[in-house]
Amino acid sequence: xxxxxxxxxxxxxxxxxxxxxxxxxxxxxxxxxxxxxxxxxxxxxxxxxxxxxxxxxxxxxxxxxxxxxxxxxxxxxxxxxxxxxxxxxxxxxxxxxxxxxxxxxxxxxxxxxxxxxxxxxxxxxxxxxxxxxxxxxxxxxxxxxxxxxxxxxxxxxxxxxxxxxxxxxxxxxxxxxxxxxxxxxxxxxxxxxxxxxxxxxxxxxxxxxxxxxxxxxxxxxxxxxxxxxxxxxxxxxxxxxxxxxxxxxxxxxxxxxxxxxxxxxxxxxxxxxxxxxxxxxxxxxxxxxxxxxxxxxxxxxxxxxxxxx
Amino acid sequence: xxxxxxxxxxxxxxxxxxxxxxxxxxxxxxxxxxxxxxxxxxxxxxxxxxxxxxxxxxxxxxxxxxxxxxxxxxxxxxxxxxxxxxxxxxxxxxxxxxxxxxxxxxxxxxxxxxxxxxxxxxxxxxxxxxxxxxxxxxxxxxxxxxxxxxxxxxxxxxxxxxxxxxxxxxxxxxxxxxxxxxxxxxxxxxxxxxxxxxxxxxxxxxxxxxxxxxxxxxxxxxxxxxxxxxxxxxxxxxxxxxxxxxxxxxxxxxxxxxxxxxxxxxxxxxxxxxxxxxxxxxxxxxxxxxxxxxxxxxxxxxxxxxxxxxxxxxxxxxxxxxxxxxxxxxxxxxxxxxxxxxxxxx
Lengths: 309, 346
Known about the structure:
The complex is a heterodimer.
Chain A: H1 2-33, H2 41-59, H3 62-86, H4 91-112, H5 140-144, H6 149-167, H7 169-179, H8 181-186, H9 191-217, H10 229-239, H11 244-267, H12 274-277, H13 279-291
Chain B: H1 2-28, H2 33-46, H3 48-73, H4 81-95, H5 103-129, H6 135-153, H7 189-206, H8 208-218, H9 220-225, H10 230-257, H11 268-278, H12 286-305, H13 313-335
């Protein structure tokens, strides 16, 4: 029974810790399927986390905070899209610039606003739901019925997205934009418009991930609080072979590794805590080595599209 | 072609929007952008301490920028130089009790830094070269690991004898880089940085290896037909740029700090990316670019300390500078009358 309770708590916490990564990974999957790498989502997550807290505090509603974060993320995505899709600049370099911009804007905004008060601001963040009143059921309750609303939305969103990619006209256009843009262009599809929207979507999802981090998982903003989650999200996309549902599973792996290391810190006080903190990163490095071989990425990923006339 | 000049026009608009973003951010802080710009210039160029601080900072930024330039030439994106710098510093510091207390010992420390950085970069090199894993993710993950290991070392096995502050014991004076100019902190690392510029410039522009880097960077697929293995190039250049990062770490330790502690060289590896990009990956321009960014830092740092603008403005500026630089190269490429034909992988 104790083991079951431990595992249940571990899984429930793992799901919570995985959600910011999963949301960002869903967005990155869309963008990469359309052929654009966005290595700046770490920066977008930070902006989303900051904006969510700022608007939640001033409006009193975490949903307003989430909406504002999503808008700011889409705007950040639009910057990347202008440079990579319209101007056809190097995607990685633009993404790195976006990363700097996101670190800067979130830290700068934070010091101008929330950090001014001196004392920690109260954030009326998201609370866990109690679906059907079943959250209290032992073992499965906290996992299935006692999570944040955003978590259910993320799973539904990923499922819809997987369906959209595999079975709809829009999905086909997105995949064509990433795999063989010339064909999409020849068939009359607007490659650049599809890519532009997908990059904006990646920004919106990343910012939603940041908002979850700062208004659901934690209630507050700290500079650089994402601590590499944006990059973990990118690695989830690769591990999942560009499948949105797979990306959620990969993110869950990181979330559980994180939940486990937090519990082990308490369980083994003799071992320096730093060795536990590095666990998710080491998992990422090892799986990067194991999972990258033979991965089939979108063929035109990272390359700008120019119609041959 | 109208399409071409259209892109050039959009590049100008995009750059203008980015500049407007920076100006807007400064206005939001209630500061006057013009007086901020003047303040930066005055402090950095016309005060002795500001200028010396900038020169001092440009030493590690030059060495790091060279490493970035080498790797980016092959389109290998090493964004983990901060971790490699830490690895180099740790190895240099760990050697300190074992080496003779003279110039030879100092040389051993610097070599240790190079080896440590190369090893840390080499891990990413193996992941990229042997397994085809993405180097951006590998290097950034290794950053976080290095930071945590450093945090443990300065509280555990490498902590000072007094065991009060999380830092190591100081280096013996004989193992410190000599000061070059009386009454300044400018140390012999300046000469090391300049020597590195020459060495990397020769490697990048005159050697077979440098040529291979350029070929892989231009077209990895074509490189394979020329008998160049892009994976080997990627693995080796990650090791090489890691070696430079490790050297930068050892120079900072032996030149400025004299001991191991957390938070030295903060974010230098990231700034070095901006340094190398603005230098157009040209090793000879890297020191110029590094000094430029250092002057910016010195000037902004003072303004931030005086509460004129919050410090993260520096990150906003770094991002903005890269974006404007990107827009500039797009503008030039599309404005050129006899530019190359547009290619799908432009």
